[in-house]
Write a structure and sequence with these properties.
The chain is α+β, with helices and mostly antiparallel strands. 41% of the residues lie in helices and 22% in strands. The radius of gyration is 43 Å and the shape is rod-shaped.
Length: 326
């Protein structure tokens, strides 16, 4: 040891022994290294699984938030349409949410989350941004039942309106003969072109009563004569004569007109303008300011005078019959 310490006599031997023992040392260290690697693998695997789960939860949360944002946007659009209808018809009302359908699956009714505690009254009209939904037929403290316009025997006074038709003016260049016309002729031609450019199909506004069919969600117009001027595409709007619905609300669009000469009345079917099963909110109109059309006083006086004269005439006839019987 002294010689090795002073003269490094065993250095070569020590290097040789170290070289021989290196594989043995690595072989002895290998189980520990494998154990550590396996532990690190499982730790990394668990960490990746946790991160994957967190990312999946985040994706689901963002998806739910996105769907909720779409729903809110759709509700805002629908409420904006309700406000537009409110500004158009200037009627007070309460916005309500549709909470469920009626318990009877064969009845076309819905239940809203407003009742008499919110000022809802029986017979109130219910609308959405497109037109008439129905009428309140049952009421509770915090909820009410609305009968849809498509329910069987549910009737609404309507008026038939046909949209005006526009003709597009001709784009052909004027001919030489037309270019040499006099100013008077030019004036007549211009007036004729103006008259033919905007062609309006004048209608007197056929009045009828729309009745729900109750079968396939359609609306029918019964007792319309075959000769009545009504076509597919005509719009049915409320006439306002019943004092419940304000005039001008869309009810339905005519889809079927069957005029069979063998029958006295035509078969007319219309599709409703509203689809409450596609929306969550409706508006219940306030019926406090609703009133029936008032009769002209002059007509009322004339009718009273005619009734009085008729009563007097009947009294005289009764007196003559009594004398004849004697």
């Amino acid at each position: 040891m002294i010689a090795d310490h002073r003269f490094q006599a065993l250095g070569v031997l020590r290097q040789g022994v170290s070289t021989l023992l290196t594989p043995v040392e690595r072989a002895l260290m290998w189980p520990g290294k494998v154990g550590r690697d396996i532990g690190d693998y499982f730790i990394a695997q668990e960490k990746l699984l946790d991160e994957n789960k967190a990312l999946n939860d985040k994706v689901l949360q963002l998806s739910a938030e996105g769907q909720r944002a779409q729903l809110i946007a759709a509700e805002q659009e629908h409420i904006a349409a309700l406000n537009a209808a409110n500004l158009r018809f200037n009627r007070k009302g309460v916005v309500a949410e549709i909470i469920r359908d009626a318990r009877n699956p064969f009845a076309r009714k819905i239940v809203i989350n407003r009742g008499y505690a919110d000022g809802i009254k029986l017979g109130s009209a219910v609308i959405d941004g497109n037109g008439v939904v129905g009428q309140v037929t049952a009421i509770g403290a915090t909820s009410a039942e609305v009968t849809l316009t498509t329910e069987k025997d549910q009737s609404i006074p309507v008026m038939v309106i046909r949209p005006s038709r526009l003709t597009v003016p001709s784009a052909e260049p004027p001919s030489e003969a037309a270019a040499t016309t006099t100013p008077a002729t030019d004036t007549v031609s211009a007036s004729q072109r103006t008259a033919t450019t905007r062609e309006r199909n004048e209608r007197g506004g056929l009045r009828a009563v729309a009745v729900g069919s109750g079968r396939d969600g359609k609306i029918e117009l019964p007792f319309i004569p075959v000769a009545a001027d009504i076509q597919v595409g005509d719009t049915l709007v409320t006439s306002g004569v019943d004092g419940t619905y304000p005039a001008g609300l869309s009810v339905a669009t005519v889809t079927v007109v069957d005029k069979n000469p063998a029958f006295s009345f035509a078969r007319i079917v219309a599709s409703p303008a509203t689809a409450p099963d596609h929306h969550r909110f409706v508006k219940v109109l306030d019926t406090a300011d609703a009133s029936y059309p008032q009769v002209d006083p002059a007509i009322a006086d004339r009718a009273g005078q005619e009734k009085s004269a008729l009563s007097k005439r009947e009294a005289k006839l009764d007196a003559k019959r009594a004398l004849r019987d004697r």
